Each structure stands twice: as structure tokens, then as C-alpha cells.
């Protein structure tokens, strides 16, 4: 892979200019952070989950973000209704398979969403994506490093099988549609030290997917934006609490110069 | 309208001295912020939604705040029970018609709440209040500016029709009972740049309504307090993330001098 | 009682080294704060409530934290399933009786949890614990000071009756198993000035209980850690908003020197 440059700022500007509505059905832990990151990047968050209104709400939106972090049966049913409505309108659907692999219920519901609705972008960390690929890390008896080594291969395989984009967040993030692959090397160890950065990454991907049809490109650009802002925020913070507040500040103030200078991406 | 001065501090002091309980049934996105803004202003927040306990909880409270942001069918039923209990006790009920106009379900449930319980204060932004007034902004083919121009008229009409106070939050906020009208010109563009300021405004109105029978006056005083604090917070912040934290700091530290000096209100 | 020193840091280091999973079924108000405090202290939070998965999730965990703050009927049923699963695995269960005494429903459900599952640590403030002890503060006609005076006695009685640890948070916190008693004198008046410190204290107790079998000791050490961090955070903050962010920073940075120097504990 070779180092490349993406014109991330043009997409960010398009978000700020057009303020797309990003409809979320997400977990109750980070729901504020997901809404607020969408707001401060310049888009318009909507969080709604009642089965009576999600189809109509999805039709008002420019993208849909699903996150199963605090799933229950009814919530997944609402997700399916929203996703099908989004599919009918033709807007992109992002699925964060938060916690996949932890319980059988979570795995079952993840696969139901993937089977019963059109998911355009699957996003997770290494172990979540491995599980969605059908891998059982524990029974294979491999250590984390081995799984990571093979992660690009696994992600590509999943992308081809599901005909979607796969985003794996880790130290180096992977974005692939099975043929085109980006690796984003931005970010900071402080990010996984707080709750919510993974969920916010999925939301930001939703915002970029709302303004750019090339969803591999949109997802890569989204991660660059989010992680460059995180690097800026770390410099201005004194620990994980202040880091999160500065992260909102830094995303709000992102400009072309910072994005061009700080991005670290390979393709 | 003429510039006037309100003795906002006397009400704020009454809140701090008597620590009224403000019962909320609110959305899952900003529920923490609503509780915390009530706490830092000196009152006592209670968030509870189980249909088995909301009537009893409302009887312990000095005001009730309803916010339909992440409504579902059961939640609205609990709201009705709480509101009827509040009506029986004679404590004020604030309804934030958060997202009204977005879906038919949201409109229907807003009208059910207004029809089946006594709502003392309806609060929303321009498009939400317009919808509750029965206006369909999109089909009328008018632009936002025209709607705003007519907003005082619409708010008065709604206040008279529903026999309640109507609060419209915008650059200039409107508070009216159909005859007496206040316009609050405090605030800052940073406020709508984050998620939660609208919801927190409704909570603060709930706190002021808990200590002052004149609900037009209470609502106006609440908005002055909240928005003066926001102006102070902007000066101490470096973006939307730090703004929100400083907002809590500034409300906590509000004093008579700041409130007298910075308020911008017309009647 | 005499001033003593606890080797709190050894337990904190064990948490950071082993990253135990702390499973929560908690309220929707402070759920982010509970998850994040667990993360920044170095443990691994899991928040999940679906009845289909809580038993399995509890089996993955090293401790379970229940908080009834925004209870409803179904949520309590999930708590029971999770607690019984935790009991079977032999991991400690912490119950925060948040809001006990406010409604009959809340009292009834608290007693159901205590009767139908093995609760290892009951945590509440003075009035909540008094109510769980069977006391009716209002009908007894005593003032708060008198109750507090008798609080160690009440807590010991409850600990013996329920065969568990009782934690009472107040200016001076009490931790007792009915015979061994610690009083923690750390903390700051800013703590009850924001929403969430009580809930976070229960979470931190869950993290310490995950790495130390002596649950009286674990609970006392947890409170020392949390309150020493709070004292540090107050010094670096300008009000309740910045205090909370600095609290996360300070817990993240806690070291042996600070803990040894600042702890104020009696036994």
C-alpha cells in the first residue's frame, strides 16, 4: 500500500453547507455523544426509535446509523423497519455491530439485520468484525496479533460476501469494499480510553455517507476527519475527561489546512 | 415593545433556597443534561417514567417537565398519567414539543397530550410551535423569515386557544399568555450549535415555574437566566465541547450583578 | 474509631492490569458516566439489559452493578435474571437503591431484588439506606442529623440482616459488613452538586469488588479512590461542569503517592 492524500475537506464543507439529516437508532450509553458529534460537524442529528415513526423519519433523512450497543428485541424490530425504509429511499445505512461476539443474542440479531435489510456499511472493531465474518477467535486459539495480521483479508472477504463496505477500527483502521481498500493511520491511544469514540466514528461515517455516493471514500474521509480532530484534542487536554470536550471543539474547528497536513492514509 | 428589567435574581434565589423537585419524563438523548442543569441551578431533579410510579412521583414534585424527543407509545401513556397527577396536585406542567412536525406520530401524540392533560407551558422552536398552531410551513410555501415575522401572532393565538403559556425559542425568544408578551434577546449562536440547549431551557423553565405562580414571568426569567449563563460560557470556551461544560459552571455561579447587567428583555 | 491507612493503590493497579468486565443494568440518566468511569479507571464496562442476553453477559463479567434510578417493570425482571446468573457464577453483585423511599413501586422493587437474588453490596445515601432498613424517616419525625447520628448502627443492622455489605454515601461514608466498619472522610461538597457522582461511586465499587474478595475492604478502597480523585478535580475546576470532566482526568491519573497522601479513613 502507498501513502495517498484525500480531499477530505471538500466533503466536510459539503456537510456543513447542506446540513444532512442523520437518523440514528443507537445505544442509550453514547446517544448524546452520537447526536452531538453530528451537530458539531455541521449536520443535523435525529434520534428516534418508535416503530410507529421510524419509517417516516428515515424518509426525512439523508443517511441512517444503527448501533446495537444496548439492543433489545423491540429495538431491533424498529431498526429493521427504519433500514427497509432507508433502502426504499436509497439512502445509505451504517450498522455498528457494537458488542457482536459477546452473546448469542447479539450475534443472532446482527445477522438478522444483515439478512433482512440492505446494510451499506458494516463497522466494528477487530473482534466484532471477526465474529461477523464467522470467525470464532477464542476457539481458533489464535492471539489478537494474528487476527489483526489477517484483518484486511477478513474485511475484504466480508465486504464481498455481504456486498457492502466494511470498516474495522483499530490502531490502523481498514475501509474496504472488497477491492478498493484504505488504511487510516491517524488516531491516538486516548480514543479507546474513553467510552463513545467507536460509536461517534460510526455517526461521522453516516454524515459523510450522506453527502458522497462513493461510500468507501466517504468512510475513509470520515475516519480521517474524526481521528485528526482526536489528535488535535489530545494535545489540548489533560486526560480523558477534557479530551472528550476538546474533541467536540476540534471537530467544530477542523479546516482544510489541518486536514491536508495531518492525514495519514494509505491505499 | 419596550426594554424592561426583570428581578430575575429573586426567583433564582428562591430556587436555590427551596430546592424544588422538578419531575421529568424526557428524551434519552439529553436526559443527563436536563437533570444536571436542574441540579446546578440549585433545584432537585427526578427522572422517572414507569407508569406504576409516575403519578406518585409527580405528587412529590413542584413542577413537571415533559419532552417528547424520543417518544414511544408507552412513554406517552406514562406522560399522561404524570400530567393528570400534576394537574390534580396543581403544579405546573411544561411540554417541550421536541421534533413536532417531523412525523405524523409525533404530531398526533403532541395533540393527545394537549387534549388529555392540562399543559401550562408549551415550549418549542419556531417550526415546532408553528406545527402545533396547525400551520404547515412547507405547504404554505413561505420561507422561514416570513414565519418568524408572524411568530408573535401565532404564539399568542396558540396561547389563547390552549389557555396556556407559549414559549418559542429562537434568536429572539417569545413568551406569551396571549395578552402579556415578553421577548428575550439574550443568547448566543453557540447555543443551537450543540445538542441539548433547547431541552435544558425547558427544564430551567420547569424550575422557575416551581417557585413562581405567574408563569409568563417565570418562563421569561428562566430564559434570561439560561441565556445570560450561555453568553458567559461562550466567553470562557474554545468551542462547543468546552462551551457545554462552562455553561454548567456559569449557571452555578450566576449572581444578581450579572443578571441585572446582562439581561436584554422587552415587553 | 481510629485513623488507618489502606493500600488502595495495589487494588487500583490490579484493576488496571486485569481490566475486569463490569456488567451494568443502570439508569438512563448517568449510564454514560457509569460506563466512562469504569473505562477511565482501567476496567471494561458492559451495559446490557435485554432479558435474552443478561444472563450470558453476567457470566462474561467479573462483577455486576444494578441501579434502579429509572426502573420499570421489565428492567427489574432483567436485573433479577442477571443477578441470579452472577450468583451462579459467584461474582459480586452491587445494588444502588437509587431513589428508594420516593415511591411505593421503588421500595417494592428494591425489596424484590434483595429477596429474590443474592446482593453482595447495598449502596445508597442516608435516606435510601434508612428506607431499606425499614425506617420511615418522615413518620419518625426526626431530623436528618439524628438519622445520620444513628446511621452506623442502622447500616450494621441492615448488613447483618441481609448478610451483605452496606455502603452509605454522605459527608462521611460508611462501609460495613455488620462487624468490620470503615468510615471514609474524603470527598468534597461539589460531588453532590452534580448529577451522577452517587451512581459512579457504585460503579467504582463494582470495579474494586471485581478484583478483591474482601468486599468491605474493596468498597472502602473504591470510595477512597473516587473521592480522592474528586478532591483533586475540584482544585482544577471552575464549577460543576468542568469538575465532572476533571474528575475523569483525575481518576485516570491517580497514583500511589496521591492515594497514600490524601486518603482519610477510619476503622
Features:
homotrimer, alpha/beta, 54% helix, 267 residues
Any overview of this molecule?
Three copies of one chain form a homotrimer. Chain A is α/β, with parallel strands linked by helices and 267 residues long. Chain A has one domain (7-178, 191-219): Ribokinase (UDP-N-acetylmuramoyl-L-alanine:D-glutamate ligase). In chain A, 54% of the residues lie in helices and 15% in strands. Chain A has 13 helices and ten strands. In chain A, strands 1-10-9-8-7-6-5-4-2-3 form a ten-stranded mixed beta sheet, sandwiched between helices. In chain A, α5 (104-116) links the parallel β5 (93-96) and β6. The first copy, chain A, is globular and about 45 Å long. The mean pLDDT of chain A is 95. Chains A and B meet through α2, β3, α3 and α12 of A and α5 and α12 of B.
Q: Report the portion of residues of chain A in β strands.
A: 5-15%
CATH topology of chain A: UDP-N-acetylmuramoyl-L-alanine:D-glutamate ligase
Helix proportion of residues of chain A, in percent? 40-55%
Number of helices of chain A: 13
